[in-house]
Amino acid sequence: MPQTLRNLPVTARLQRLGERLRDACAQRNWTALARTDAELAQWLGGLDAAALTPGERTALQQLRQLHRQISGDCQRELERVGQTLEQMRQQRQGWSAYAESADWGTEAQA
Q1: Structural domain spans, the chain
Q2: Residue 67 burial by Cβ neighbours in a 10 Å radius (0-12, 13-18, 19+)
């Protein structure tokens, strides 16, 4: 975890990680999103949930909710990209035929 987060109280860390997740998703920076998600998972793996204060538990719950929302956003984006790729795959044959016919016109002029 970056040094700047290590020095923060638990609630501030949770909020900062949430901000980073939100920003990366909004910017469609999937690399940063994956990196922050992995960092969050690692940090939460070492967190003693039983020792959290009520305020820290609230911050953790808010982060969980944000994480679910961002996961849904990522799933929808994955489906959108998949649909676009499928459309491109289906149109490939038409594009190839068009490209070949354009080549015929060039050959006829030569």
Answers
A1: 3-109
A2: middle
